[in-house]
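step=encode ok
step=design start
structure_in=
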């Protein structure tokens, strides 16, 4: 079977294999590595991960669909994930989401026409002590306020951020 995953995927997984008790334990890191290839996980990538791990594709899809950090549809170059759970909500997350929607001219869950931004809502990001928090691709942005969010978006538009 041909694979949509690059040699780098298999090289990186080879490095990890000795640190895990078996291949099934590598499902999460394999999905992370696979997602780096396209920024999301097409069906063919899930099938290739399943083949690598040695399980049915449905098992890989179950895992990938459980965790919000895996994208099962294409996302923008910069994926902004604003936490709207309790601690962040109490500190203005809803206002931040509203601001981001207005500034980017999209609704939560959508991608800008130029493909630069996707905006999503997240449950707790585990950064409650620095609420409100957001993830921008793999980076955390904490103690967010509208001024900081605006500056962050502007910086990305100018091409200054890529994680
Ligand atoms: S509630 Fe937002 S990071 Fe925990």
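sequence_out=
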């Amino acid at each position: 079977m041909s694979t949509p995953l690059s040699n780098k995927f298999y090289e990186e997984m080879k490095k990890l294999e000795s640190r895990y008790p078996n291949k099934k334990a590598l499902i999460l890191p394999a999905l992370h590595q696979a997602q780096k290839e396209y920024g999301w996980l097409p069906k063919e990538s899930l099938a290739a991960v399943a083949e690598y791990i040695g399980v049915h594709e449905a098992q890989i899809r179950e895992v990938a669909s459980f965790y919000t950090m895996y994208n099962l549809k294409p996302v923008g170059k910069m994926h902004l994930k604003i936490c709207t759970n309790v601690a962040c909500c109490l500190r203005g997350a809803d206002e931040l989401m509203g601001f981001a929607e207005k500034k980017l001219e999209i609704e939560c869950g959508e991608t800008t026409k130029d493909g630069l931004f996707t905006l999503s809502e997240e449950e707790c990001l585990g950064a409650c002590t620095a609420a409100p928090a957001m993830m921008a691709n793999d980076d955390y942005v904490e103690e967010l306020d509208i001024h900081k969010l605006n500056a962050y978006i502007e910086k990305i538009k100018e091409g200054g951020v890529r994680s």
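step=design ok
step=annotate ok -> The chain has a mean pLDDT of 94.
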